[in-house]
């Protein structure tokens, strides 16, 4: 484990060292509620293994990327928003407001969502 | 080809039957500018093959999902927003404002982006 992983917030959440509200989990993924929700439903899905961002996850472990996406779809089903609709978001870098450097998928829904580009 | 594919806007764009402004392409993906951009950079990446939405693409062809994501990262590099940051978005269903039923990844950046949940 590199020092960046040892200090990684989401690695600590996956390990249970920092508490979170679990929503769904598989052998390779973990889903929990965002502590600053932007919608009625706002869940984060992370791969248990550390990958820096969406591009790294996609190139380093494409099967795991698909598992993260399918976990997001399963969360939508569990939360009852599969039919009403949901948004899946990966943010990379400062302009996207990204703050944790462990790839994570946002799952949002439960109400009519707004636009997703400029403020 | 099903009738839904025959009538699919993005299948027609991939086929060149409807014009678009190409940004990047591979053997399996095609990227073009959104005609209603929500940010300075707003590009759509689609798999050339028809898949209804992100969940279907993830379960039916996980390798292709990764190719779409990596094409999105390559678009970010080409557009000069790899370091400043970018957002990758899949919308599913009415609450997310989805309008075309061929899985597509939004790539947004080039300026400070806003929130991405409720309006």
What's the SSE blueprint?
2 copies of one chain form a homodimer.
Chain A: H1 3-6, H2 9-15, E1 22-25, E2 29-33, E3 41-47, H3 54-60, H4 62-78, E4 86-92, E5 105-109
Antiparallel strand pairs in A: 1-2, 2-3, 3-5, 4-5
Helix pairs in contact in A: 3-4
Helix content of chain A: 25-40%
Uncertain regions of chain A: pLDDT < 50 for 5+ in a row? none
How big a fraction of the residues of chain A is strand?
Answer: 15-25%
Enumerate how many helices of chain A there are, as a single number: 4
* Backbone structural class of chain A: alpha+beta
**Rg value of chain A:** 14 Å
DSSP summary, beta strand count of chain A: 5
- The geometry of chain A reads as globular
Quaternary organization = homodimer
How far apart, in Å, are the first and last alpha carbons of chain A? 38 Å
Largest interface: A-B, 49 and 49 residues
Q: Would you mind describing this structure in some detail?
A:
- The structure is a homodimer.
- With about 120 residues, chain A is of the alpha+beta class.
- Chain A has 4 helices and 5 strands; from the N terminus they run ααβββααββ.
- The first copy, chain A, has a 5-stranded antiparallel sheet, covered by helices on one side.
- In chain A, a hairpin with a 3-residue loop joins strand 1 and strand 2.
- The mean pLDDT of chain A is about 95.
- Chains A and B meet through helix 3, helix 4, strand 4 and strand 5 of A and helix 3, helix 4, strand 4 and strand 5 of B.
- Strand 4 (about 85-90) of chain A pairs antiparallel with strand 4 of chain B, so a sheet runs across the interface.
């Amino acid at each position: 484990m590199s020092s960046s992983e040892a200090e990684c917030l989401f690695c600590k959440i996956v390990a249970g060292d920092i508490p979170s509200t679990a929503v769904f989990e598989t052998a390779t993924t973990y889903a929990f509620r965002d502590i600053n929700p932007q919608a009625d439903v706002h869940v984060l899905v992370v791969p248990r293994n550390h990958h820096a961002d969406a591009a790294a996850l996609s190139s380093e472990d494409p099967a795991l990327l698909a598992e993260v996406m399918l976990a997001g779809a399963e969360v939508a089903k569990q939360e009852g928003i599969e039919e009403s609709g949901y948004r899946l978001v990966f943010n990379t870098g400062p302009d996207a407001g990204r703050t944790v450097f462990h790839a994570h998928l946002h799952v949002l829904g439960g109400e009519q969502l707004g636009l997703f580009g400029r403020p």
